[in-house]
Design a protein that fits this description.
Length: about 425
């Protein structure tokens, strides 16, 4: 459990909060690149860490991320004209480039020129892995670019989507780094079911409750769920938590192709989250069926492509079907990630962690909370928080069935060097 004060510390991310200040020291997914694909196209509203922003691509293809409201009379620049390398307010014609510099004032005579005194807040951006990333922190503290292994994959092998989750970001993250729930909540009851989830024969389901091994690193941690399969074998599934809100895990495409996948739970504000879902194949191109994400519930069939809100949501009980729950799946809700959102949102907008009762199976969650508090403390003391280096660049996640007693680190996680592990808990 956490005290109420500790819970407030790591959940609240609005401007000026300790956790919000810490998050601003990382590159943050701001929007999908395809949302602003065309130069001089329509600007897109973006809300990050409680701050209202606009993203646009200028005439030369450069990306701007600026505050939404014109500094003249505070009209929304969402209604502005994206033209000739700048965003022009339609109220009085003040125009701003991607750096937030005012470059023209249509309503002022030339002799009254004071545009050099006016600026919009603007944030640096980069485009990697189909996502526009933003850095909202102090310029002199900017970390290296976010070169996750998945962001470097070719478009043919990579798929990225996003969906709104109606609760605090930490509830999503903690669900994503909780391996013990997955073969329970996401299990199927029949081998013949075509729904998303783990069938009874899957070793993830057949194995006993996992022993968790958490290796603390300078980016967060790697952890493994080790499940006995009888007396002779064990099932290993590894994950990574990369500060402040990234998960990396093994997965499998609809076509059966092995994938590396994960999520980023990006705070829109204290009570709303944008979940970025990504998956890539190190070897094979993804199929059109893979990109529908039917088993996960994140694809175009499940999520409105304009609002990014799930069709299955709190208002309709996530389309829960009690007959399906009796006969086909543990929850009766279609889509692995829809199930996640349903349960995490059921806790309330911000769960009261002072009322929890945690056990050994929650080791990874306990450690994540500790690392987040340490990141806040580092920023408050003027230091760089963990996870702002480059050690996460080459990370992969793995799953395997091995003989009991095998050296799983050597066989399953070859990219994890001994010097990366600061502590094992």
């Amino acid at each position: 459990m956490l005290s109420r004060e500790q819970n407030e510390l790591i959940t609240r991310v609005m401007p000026g909060t300790p956790m919000g200040n810490a998050m601003r020291r990382y590159w943050i997914p701001a929007l999908l690149a395809r949302e602003i694909a065309e130069p001089d196209g329509a600007p897109v509203r973006v809300r990050l860490l409680g701050e209202d922003l606009l993203a646009f691509r200028d005439s030369t293809g450069r990306i701007g991320l600026v505050e939404e409201y014109c500094p003249h009379r505070r009209a929304s620049l969402f209604f502005g004209r994206n033209e000739e390398c700048g965003l022009r307010c339609v109220y009085h014609g003040w125009k701003f480039d991607i750096a937030g510099t005012c470059v023209d004032m249509m309503n002022e005579p030339e002799e009254n020129d004071f545009k050099h005194k006016v600026r919009l807040t603007a944030y640096p951006t980069c485009e990697r892995g189909g996502i526009v990333w933003a850095y909202l922190g102090p310029a002199e503290r900017m970390p290296p670019l976010p070169k996750f292994a998945w962001t470097e994959a070719p478009e043919t092998h990579l798929h990225v989507t996003k969906v709104i989750q109606e609760c605090n970001w930490l509830q999503g993250l903690e669900g994503g780094i909780d391996t013990s729930h997955a073969p329970i909540m996401h299990r199927l009851l029949s081998e013949t079911s075509t729904r998303g989830g783990f069938k009874p024969s899957n070793p993830f389901v057949r194995g006993k409750a996992p022993k968790l091994v958490v290796d603390i690193t300078d980016y967060g941690y790697q952890y493994a769920g080790i499940r006995p399969l009888g007396d002779a074998e064990m099932h290993i599934r590894t994950y990574h938590f990369v500060l402040p809100f990234h998960q990396i895990r093994p997965s499998r495409a609809e076509s059966g192709v092995p994938l590396i996948a994960g999520h980023s739970w990006v705070p829109i504000d204290d009570e709303t989250t944008m979940v970025y879902n990504w998956a890539y194949s190190p070897n094979d191109a993804l199929t059109d069926a893979d990109r529908l994400e039917r088993g996960l519930g994140n694809g175009p069939v499940h999520v409105d492509p304009d609002t990014f809100r799930s069709h299955a949501n709190r208002a309709n009980n996530y389309l829960l079907d009690r007959n399906v729950q009796r006969n086909e799946s543990y929850t009766g809700i279609d889509g692995i990630n829809v199930q996640d959102r349903a349960i995490q949102e059921s806790m309330g907008r911000i769960v009261d962690r002072s009322k929890e009762h945690l056990g050994p199976a929650d080791k990874a969650i306990i450690q994540a909370r500790k690392l987040l508090r340490q990141a806040v403390k580092a920023v408050e003391e003027g230091r760089a928080p963990d996870g702002t280096g480059t050690s996460y660049y080459s990370l992969y996640a793995h799953e395997a069935v091995l003989p009991g007693g095998a050296d799983w680190r050597r066989q399953v996680t070859p990219e994890m060097r001994a010097e990366m592990i600061l502590q094992t808990v």
